[in-house]
Amino acid sequence: MIIDMTKGDPLKHILVFSVPLLIGNIFQQLYNIADLVIVGRTLGVESFAAVGAVAPVFFLITFIIVGLTNGFAVITGQRYGAKDINGVRNSVIVSTILSTIVTLAFSVVCTLFLNPILKWMNVPANIYHNAFWYVEIIIIGLIITTMYNMISSIIRALGDSKTPLYFLIVASLANIILALIFILIFHMGVPGSAIAVLLSQGISVLLCLIYVRYKMPVLRISRKEWLIKFDKDFFESAFEHLRVGVPMAIQFSIIGVSVLVIQSVCNSFGSNVIAAFTAALRIEQIATMPMMSFGVALAAYVAQNFGAIKFKRIRLGVIQTSVINIVLSIIMAFVMRIWGTNIIGAFIGTKSKEIIDIAHNYLLISTIFYFFLGQIFIYRNALQGMGETIFPLLACSAELVMRIFAAVYLAMKFGYVGIFYAGPIAWISASAIMFFGYFGSMKHIIYKVKYKIHNDITNIE
User: Does 266 have pLDDT greater than 90?
Assistant: First the structure.
């Protein structure tokens, strides 16, 4: 159901919107983790390490696609908030065309440079074959991933966070079933797990398309509308989308590259460290899902209210979600410090004390700094909802520098434990930039809207 978030209680809208997102994000992580769990418990630690060793490549590719499609959806949400229905439909068409072009080009580039990347990442020889084919299969089917993320982002931009959740649940269950079939029955090993990911995402795309066609008239675009002219209006609209989508893709890619660097250093410490680090990160991603969900909900809320020129509502929503994330960061840190080790043991399906101890040490360090991560989710999404990209890009750049510093210098000085400080150091630096960037940007945006664009202060709340 489409929701207009420019009216009513801000906190209620954000809470209602964020709950399906939280459930969806958990299922998204389970969707990703299912491969690791099934591989780890059926094929062994080496196969688990093979998927874990190249997980940053998979996430880098996904981050870029998610950043791009989320950026395009910001324009869609702003136009919906401004009650520009024709603009919404145009945004969907332009987003589809641009996403397709970018994905096809990106797939070719990734295929050409995959071998050099894996060698640079120090992927051990004993797991190289499985690692290569896992990522290569994902790259081949990248257009499916793009279409799923694009359609889901557009539906959420219109205030509907429940529908993508339902389809994600179906896809998650399908992924588990298909992975078990391909691995246990057809004996396809690690590549079978990658094929299961793509097929299950394809199911989600099909369900989304059916839903849009029959339940969302605003997105029901005729064949005639798809036959657009590549004229001045199209290129202006394309530029508007790329102006937001490309910086967001760059932001996500910077994060992905930093994780890639860390993983390449981690890979040099052997399969046990790879397995432990991979397991700890996946568990942490689930633990931080509530904070991330409020951030994503805030982005949709801000985008609509920005389009409606309601800045008081934006400020109130940011304050309320910031307080919520502070509370959540304390709760989740407590949970992870108490029960994280038990979860990791069940996750990997191993009784190796060395692997569990390594993963536990990571959680003891990172949980102290969840507060900073929670605030990044709030202020980054608030700025992105307004179409502001400079400060999020600066924050991501700071994250990249700090993570590389930890991966290279601290790892050399303290061993693999030094890598565990990469995330916390990055979170502290990025949160500081985002905090000051938000308040500075709000002042600049309000001034621009009041005196340069609308020149009518009576319309601004």
Answer: no
pLDDT at res. 208: 87
Structural domain boundaries in the chain = 10-459
**401 is written with which tokens?**
């520098």
Task: Identify whether the C-beta of residue 259 lies closer than 8 Å to the C-beta of residue 403.
Answer: yes
pLDDT, mean over the chain: 83
Average pLDDT value for residue range 318-337: 91
Q: Do 256 and 267 touch, CB atoms closer than 8 A? A: no
With pLDDT > 90 as the criterion, what percentage of the chain qualifies?
Answer: 17
Q: φ and ψ at 216, to 5 degrees? A: -130, 85
Supply angle C-alpha 103, 104, 107, rounded to 5. 80
Average pLDDT of the segment spanning 221-240 = 84
Which H, E and C letters describe the chain, residue by residue? CCCCCCCCCHHHHHHHHHHHHHHHHHHHHHHHHHHHHHHHHHHCHHHHHHHHHCHHHHHHHHHHHHHHHHHHHHHHHHHHHCCCHHHHHHHHHHHHHHHHHHHHHHHHHHHHHHHHHHHHCCCCHHHHHHHHHHHHHHHHCHHHHHHHHHHHHHHHHCCCCHHHHHHHHHHHHHHHHHHHHHHHHCCCHHHHHHHHHHHHHHHHHHHHHHHHHHHCHHHCCCHHHHCCCCCHHHHHHHHHHHHHHHHHHHHHHHHHHHHHHHHHHHHCCCHHHHHHHHHHHHHHHHHCHHHHHHHHHHHHHHHHHHHCCCHHHHHHHHHHHHHHHHHHHHHHHHHHHHHHHHHHHHHHCCCCHHHHHHHHHHHHHHHHHHHHHHHHHHHHHHHHHCCCCHHHHHHHHHHHHHHHHHHHHHHHHHCHHHHCCHHHHHHHHHHHHHHHHHHHHHHHHHHHHHHHHCCCHHHCC
Tens-place pLDDT, residues 69-109 = 988 988 898 888 888 888 889 999 999 999 999 999 989 99
Mean pLDDT for 32-48 is 70
pLDDT tens digits for range 360-412: 888 888 889 999 999 998 998 899 888 887 888 888 888 888 888 877 788 88
Q: Which residues contact 318 (CB under 8 A, 6 or more apart)?
A: 298, 302, 378, 379, 382, 438
Structure tokens at 398: 């700071």
Query: Is pLDDT above 50 for 20?
Result: yes
Cα separation, 381 vs 391, in Å, equals 11
pTM: 0.70
CA 270 to chain centre: 28
Mean pLDDT of 292-319: 86
Residue 27 CA to residue 53 CA, distance in Å, equals 22
